[in-house]
Amino acid sequence: MSSYPIDSVGLVTPQRMAFNTPLPLACGKSLAEYELVYETYGELNASASNAILICHALSGHHHAAGYHSEDERKPGWWDSCIGPGKPIDTRRFFVVSLNNLGGCHGSTGPSSVNPQTGKPWGGSFPVVTVEDWVHSQARLADALGIRQWAAVVGGSLGGMQALQWAISYPERIRHCVAIATAPKLSAQNIAFNEVARQAILTDPDFHHGEYNAFGVIPKRGLMLARMIGHITYLSDDSMGAKFGRELRSERLNYDLTSVEFQVESYLRYQGEEFSGRFDADTYLLMTKALDYFDPAARHDGDLAKTFAAVQADFMLMSFTTDWRFSPARSREIVNALLAARKGVSYLEIEAAQGHDAFLLPIPRYLQAFTGYMNRIEVD
């Protein structure tokens, strides 16, 4: 008898796909060869009409659902939404989740060996964009025998990829589900990303991105970057409810260097944990991809014109306390789709958890998500 919950996809094994055809990149460079690591859940039907692509956010990866071993304590990062009877129901859909190019969880990235030098790419890994990721994902779809996705789904940076899919490959996507996302970053968002990058770039152990050659990592910079980011993913209400002004001890220490408040301890723990599992060069790449995303730039900023050729139906969801990707940004997308006379559904969900809400099992969110996915027809 399985030890996993009945709504879990259970034990999953990552897979690896190698590509030897050069991939041109928006930066003007190309990757002569590369690998993508991915996982699949469910079964591809005979007509290959039930495939769903999951696109991850900044610090995400291919492990979206299930468990890698019997001993794994936490399931994949979106396990609340993927599995039997969940919004992305693996009894109906064949789900593909990958680690993007430039990542640090198996796909070719800065920590991979550059075949031309025999050394890790490090800081010389080329800058990649959301559009580059979508082109690489299209090649993965080809290799898997998937001509058209039933839906491309993602939150935050993942939602940007879903939007780009609808724009770049209109005939290859029937539904676009973009959650807690934006048509481009605001100046404030770019500013937060730059502060995080500067924390890494100015760490004495960064060594221009070649820290692996020195046997070190820019741990302090990566910790600070994560702490900055984490603050923006939560709402004031959620931080207040979780920590308030609670002290770690009974009284103030009047010490400028001590950790006195519980929220300070929490942020330091998050930074410490993150610095042990994520690559600094990858963090720089991912935040730049966020900054550069602006598909309407090719149409003089006209988002409706950008969506003129899309064929997919859209589902947009946002969360009331998300100030990093506010509901107003989702409404920009909705209004542009309506102006372009495209099919779009939209729901703004009352939630106290801020940007992180898209990762959490909030009942109204799961209900709406399930309702939309159940509308998707498969042969």
UniProtKB/TrEMBL annotation:
InterPro entries cross-referenced by the UniProt entry: AB_hydrolase_1 (IPR000073), AB_hydrolase_fold (IPR029058), HAT_MetX-like (IPR008220)
Pathway: Amino-acid biosynthesis; L-methionine biosynthesis via de novo pathway; O-succinyl-L-homoserine from L-homoserine: step 1/1
Keyword Amino-acid biosynthesis: yes
Top enzyme category: transferase
GO BP, one annotated term: homoserine metabolic process
KW Oxidoreductase (keyword) present: no
Pfam families from the UniProt entry: Abhydrolase_1 (PF00561)
Active site: S156 (nucleophile), D322, H355
AB hydrolase-1 domain mapped to chain residues: 51-359
Annotated signal peptide: none
Residues at which substrate binds: R226, D356
EC number(s) stated in the UniProt entry for this protein: 2.3.1.46
GO cellular component terms given for this protein: cytoplasm
Catalytic activity: L-homoserine + succinyl-CoA = O-succinyl-L-homoserine + CoA
Site features described as Important for acyl-CoA specificity, chain residue numbers: R324
Molecular function GO labels: homoserine O-acetyltransferase activity; homoserine O-succinyltransferase activity
Chief place where the protein resides: cytoplasm
Subunit description: Homodimer.
Xref: PANTHER family: HOMOSERINE O-ACETYLTRANSFERASE (PTHR32268:SF11)
Physiological role: Transfers a succinyl group from succinyl-CoA to L-homoserine, forming succinyl-L-homoserine.
Protein family membership: Belongs to the AB hydrolase superfamily. MetX family.
The protein, known as: Homoserine O-succinyltransferase
